[in-house]
């Protein structure tokens, strides 16, 4: 039996011109998670990430915390291993890394635009922040039901297939510890597929997932089983109390 660790990316730059980059705190979160894995003696047989910058940067931070090398070049499609590389001053990583585009997050701006065609104000107040996520929740429900087709996005069926494909790959190719770095949407969808939850429940799971949180599945060649959800064991110490974020 193996264990799949599903990690959401660290805090990104919500409200900035480019959301798809870790904030300084997001890098600290990912680095701390890598240190936690190293301290616990966790050794991964393989890793999968999406291709979004915030996902790849989180994986790089975890590798740094674990004392492993990281190669930044991207593969163009699932199934291609990243080239072996050694960062200056770091040891060669025995961790096979696979870029899996099916683990990329949905486009929240496109989801909102599908039901609210007017530009939103920058979410820089609590009220605008709540308004943003109310619209996102409504847009997700309509996308999942097939009511709207956000521009430039796959159908919800295709989105789910990208995630279940990654889960199938893990079950069929691995037996030990596997790291998967993605985003709230894919992780909530993976949990929903394992538990058989409704779309409404999957949305609620998604909106509650914290940055750099860890969700664990045990797996056999036949199935995945949920063990933990949305945990932050690496941030339990009092000095990390203000490191807990959601965006």
Give a quick set of tags describing it.
39% helix; alpha/beta; 247 residues
Description:
With 247 residues, the chain is α/β, with parallel strands linked by helices. It contains seven helices and six strands; from the N terminus they run βαβαβαααβααββ. It has helices spanning 24-40, 53-66, 108-115, 126-144, 156-173, 184-195, 199-207, and strands at 2-8, 46-49, 96-99, 177-182, 214-219, 224-231. Strands 3-2-4-1-5-6 form a six-stranded mixed beta sheet. A hairpin with a 4-residue loop joins strand 5 and strand 6.
* Strand ordering within the main sheet: 3-2-4-1-5-6
Q: What's the mean pLDDT score?
A: 89
> Are there runs of 5+ residues with pLDDT below 50, and where?
72-90
Return the string of H and E elements.
Answer: EHEHEHHHEHHEE
The first-to-last residue Cα distance is 33 Å
Oligomer: single chain
The count of helical stretches stands at 7
Name the structural class. Answer: alpha/beta
| Strand content range | 5-15%
The radius of gyration over CA amounts to: 18 Å
- Overall 3D shape: globular
Report the helical percentage. 25-40%
Please summarize the sheet with the most strands: 6 strands, mixed
Gist of the model:
It contains seven helices and six strands, in the order E-H-E-H-E-H-H-H-E-H-H-E-E. The protein is globular, with a radius of gyration of 18 Å. 39% of the residues lie in helices and 14% in strands.
What's the arrangement of secondary structure elements?
Elements: E1 2-8, H1 24-40, E2 46-49, H2 53-66, E3 96-99, H3 108-115, H4 126-144, H5 156-173, E4 177-182, H6 184-195, H7 199-207, E5 214-219, E6 224-231
Parallel strand pairs: 1-4, 2-3, 2-4
Antiparallel strand pairs: 1-5, 5-6
Helix pairs in contact: 1-2, 3-4, 4-7, 5-6, 6-7
């Amino acid at each position: 039996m193996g264990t799949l660790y599903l990690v959401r990316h660290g805090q990104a730059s919500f409200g900035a011109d480019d959301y798809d980059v870790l904030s300084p705190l997001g890098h600290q979160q990912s680095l701390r998670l890598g240190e936690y894995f190293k301290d616990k003696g966790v050794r991964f047989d393989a890793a999968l990430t999406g291709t979004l910058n915030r996902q790849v940067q989180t994986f790089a931070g975890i590798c740094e915390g674990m004392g492993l090398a990281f190669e930044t070049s991207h593969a163009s499609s699932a199934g291609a291993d990243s080239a072996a590389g050694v960062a200056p001053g770091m040891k060669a990583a025995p961790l096979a890394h696979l870029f899996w585009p099916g683990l990329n997050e949905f486009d929240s701006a496109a989801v909102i635009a599908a039901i609210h065609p007017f530009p939103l104000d920058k979410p820089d107040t609590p009220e605008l922040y709540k308004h943003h996520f109310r619209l996102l929740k409504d847009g997700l429900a309509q996308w999942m039901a097939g009511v709207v087709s956000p521009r430039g996005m796959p159908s919800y069926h295709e989105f789910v297939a990208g995630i279940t494909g990654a889960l199938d790959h893990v079950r069929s190719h691995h037996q030990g510890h596997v790291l998967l770095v993605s985003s709230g949407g894919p992780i909530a969808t993976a949990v929903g597929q394992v538990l058989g939850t409704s779309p409404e429940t999957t949305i609620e799971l998604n909106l509650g997932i914290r940055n750099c949180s860890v969700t664990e599945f045990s797996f056999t060649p036949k199935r995945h089983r949920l063990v933990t959800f949305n945990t932050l064991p690496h941030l339990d110490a009092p000095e990390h109390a203000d490191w807990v974020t959601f965006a």
